[in-house]
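Preliminary data (for renewal application), 2'-deoxycytidine-5'-monophosphate complex.
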Amino acid sequence: MASFLIVAIDGGAASGKSSTSRALSERFNFLHVDTGSYYRAITAELLRRGLGIEQVDAVKAALPGLDLGTQVEGRSARMQIAGRVVPEAEIRGAEVTAAVSHFAAIPEVRAALLAYQRGQADVARRHGFRGLVMEGRDIGSVIFPNADLRFFLHADPVERARRRALEGRADAIAERDRLDSSRKTAPLTLPPGAIAIDSTHLTLEQVVDTIGATIAEKLG
Ligand code: DC
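Predicted structure:
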């Protein structure tokens, strides 16, 4: 019987990672970490400082001064930059959505987040959670390759576009996936040993039940 579980959930844009991870965190009292929101928060901050995706040297120089922290709200972790949580409205906006894959492709940006993301397991333990459910693109391949459970969600592009439209959000899903899958450092990929789930014809509840059954078995 495991005392604390680390569950990695990777997948492309609008593959259902966030809704699934949030529901699992509620069901099992895990801390939910959406690492996409971390890349988005850093992107919002860099843009706010007037830095663009082509100013790689200035971006690298800004990284050590970001002073990253974590605020736990309910079962969700939020990134703090210099003591401020970047508001959801800002990180989900069109400007950040269009730029985030470009900033996320810079190896130094990823390196700046590596230890921080691994440290979220300690945040979860300190707050008394039973585990951590972390979603992203490289969680099962790079951040926690030895996670207790690793899942990879995919869904047909038409279905993913439909889900984004239902959320009322503009998102170039195919373009972001292309950038995220083709970058040199930690690309979006199905890591060996991860459990792949095609959610195209599944409801959210069915996906959560499938993953939840495996988690429940591990928890004993
Ligand atoms: O999950 P999301 O769509 O909100 O993520 C936004 C972007 O952040 C995504 O296009 C690529 C980047 N990202 C990443 O490179 N690695 C992660 N682990 C999570 C997100």
